[in-house]
């Protein structure tokens, strides 16, 4: 029997239905579970000493930071740290491969959440902050990859600051969250304060600046924005 145009249309519809049914049955990779208070860890100082001795106290020429950090995570497991805490430290290591960090506190906010982290073997600071449960899952507040996108030299106030403090430089360690503001379209703005110092960590204060970390309504990180720059008297 010859195949008619109507038969071809029927066959096409059947194939389309079968394809849709097949796709509906396919597994979809689930979204990562949200991080919460279960990831908090409060280790005994002796555990940190054990990590330092077994993982970091090696010849500097032989030290591989990622390997040393993984050694710390293995010790976490061995001493019975909560699985959520181990998973969080592992995620932090994948996000930033040069050191070991763990969560010391957690704050539920809104579209994204915030955590304080401790990085006991990090040279420049032992405490940091991250925004969690958005896209990407971890956004470091003190990350120079974000902060350096702010062009201070285009700001008239920075010129004024340099006339008073000729070595004024951003010191990339926030003093904390100062506010959360709704954005058009349902997103949110998370604002943090930073210090500018006159040349070094122990040098006089040159000024302060407020930086916004913006997220869309569905939690996607949209970048940073300079909100305010103030010169110290």
Characterise this structure:
The chain has 2 domains: 33-140, no CATH class; 142-233. Residues 13-31 have low confidence and may be disordered. It is 31% helix and 30% strand. A hairpin with an 8-residue loop joins strand 2 and strand 3. The strands form 2 sheets. It has a 4-stranded antiparallel beta sheet with strand order 1-2-3-4, covered by helices on one side. A 4-stranded antiparallel beta sheet has the order 5-6-7-8. It has helices at residues 5-25, 45-56, 65-78, 83-95, 144-147, 156-164, and strands at residues 102-107, 113-118, 127-132, 138-140, 168-182, 188-198, 205-215, 221-231. It starts with a helix and ends with a strand. It is globular, with a radius of gyration of 25 Å. It is of the alpha+beta class.
Summarize the structure.
With 233 residues, the protein is an alpha+beta fold.
Rg, Cα atoms, Å: 25 Å
Taken together, the total number of domains comes to 2
Backbone structural class: alpha+beta
Give the rounded overall mean pLDDT: 86
Uncertain runs are 13-31
Portion of residues in beta strands equals 25-35%
Helical content class: 25-40%
Strand line-up across the major sheet: 1-2-3-4
Q: Judging from the principal axes of the Cα atoms, what is the shape? A: globular
Largest sheet: 4 strands, antiparallel
Q: Tally the beta strands.
A: 8
Distance between the termini: 95 Å
Order of helices and strands: HHHHEEEEHHEEEE
Count of helical regions? 6
